[in-house]
Amino acid sequence: MDDLTFHGVDITYGPAGVPPTVKSVSMTARAGQTLGLVGESGSGKSSLARAAVGLVGISRGRITLGDRVVADASARRGRPRPSRAIQMVFQDSVGALNPRRTAGQTILEGIAASGHVPRADFRPELERILDLVHLHRRHADRLPRELSGGQRQRVALARAIAARPEVIVADEVTSALDVSVQSAILNLLRELQEQSSLTLLFISHNLAAVRYVSDHIAVMRDGQVVDQGASATLLANSRVPYTRELVKAVLTIPPLTTT
Ligand SMILES: Nc1ncnc2c1ncn2[C@@H]1O[C@H](COP(=O)(O)OP(=O)(O)O)[C@@H](O)[C@H]1O
Ligand SMILES: [Mg+2]
């Protein structure tokens, strides 16, 4: 198990000379723990998520998983080397799932990608993973449109887990769901993390969700991490005014409950 670390990362969209959208981000998702990344829409959270899985290049700094370099701005113009070890799950599970593939077929893609499971064991492995994400065997034969939003998000998580990653980057995975379903998915993430000893980078604009799952929290604003620390400390007594504002806003709504 290794830490996922961002070392002074800039991300720049557009031609050279344009100022970076994400500036000097340094943060660590510790091995086997959850780093929550919170910040308003447009602050650069998804850009960092995409950089971690090689969907976008970085213009300065490095991203490492232990000794392994995931992205390096000084090598090959920052062109990332995607790694199976880091899997991403998105908000839009409808868009992320192939509409013509059943849940089972989608999860089997992940199992095949793991490279760990002989073909003869695909079926039992599929059943194990369905159990892990609390989907019924019969759901395996359904297409995305025949599943609820929460069930689709379970399929997307299942595919990610099936690939046996070390890190899951979960970008707004609960944001499109009803509150009750959100709690169920957050509980599932916590459970998966404990059972599979995953490292989780949990990204959300919603501090209520972030605080529910995170050991550490980084707060983003306008492309920069303006605050970070252990969840309890950061929530209780951050010195950063922006964090205090966010915390105050979240304390006025009821906490997410375990359902
Ligand atoms: N592919 C892109 N090309 C140009 N600008 C982009 C691209 N992706 C994101 N941006 C811009 O970068 C900023 C940060 O976006 P994003 O990382 O998606 O933020 P968040 O996930 O926090 O809402 C936004 O201003 C957005 O418009
Ligand atoms: Mg985003």
Mind explaining what this structure looks like?
The protein has a six-stranded mixed sheet with strand order 6-7-8-3-9-10, with helices on both faces. A four-stranded antiparallel sheet has the order 2-1-4-5. The chain has a domain of 145 residues: P-loop containing nucleotide triphosphate hydrolases (Rossmann fold), CATH 3.40.50.300. Helix 3 packs parallel to helix 5, helix 4 packs across helix 5 and helix 5 runs parallel beside helix 6. The radius of gyration is 18 Å and the shape is globular. The chain contains nine helices and ten strands. A hairpin with a 2-residue loop joins strand 4 and strand 5. The two termini are 30 Å apart. With 259 residues, it is of the alpha/beta class. 36% of the residues lie in helices and 24% in strands. The site of adenosine-5'-diphosphate has 10 residues, from helix 1.
Shape descriptor: globular
The largest β sheet comes out as: 6 strands, mixed
Beta-strand fraction estimate:
15-25%
CATH domain topology of the domain at 1-85 and 200-259: Rossmann fold
Strand order in the largest sheet: 6-7-8-3-9-10
CATH class of the domain at 1-85 and 200-259: Alpha Beta
Low-confidence stretches: none
How many helices does DSSP assign?
9
Q: Helical residue percent?
A: 25-40%
* Small-molecule components bound: adenosine-5'-diphosphate, magnesium ion
CATH level-four homologous superfamily name of the domain at 1-85 and 200-259: P-loop containing nucleotide triphosphate hydrolases
Span of the ends, CA to CA? 30 Å
Query: Mean pLDDT score, rounded?
Result: 91
Structural class given helices, strands, pairing? alpha/beta
CATH level-two architecture of the domain at 1-85 and 200-259: 3-Layer(aba) Sandwich
Tell me the radius of gyration.
18 Å
SSE succession:
EEEHEEEHHHHEHEHEEHH
Give the total of beta strands: 10
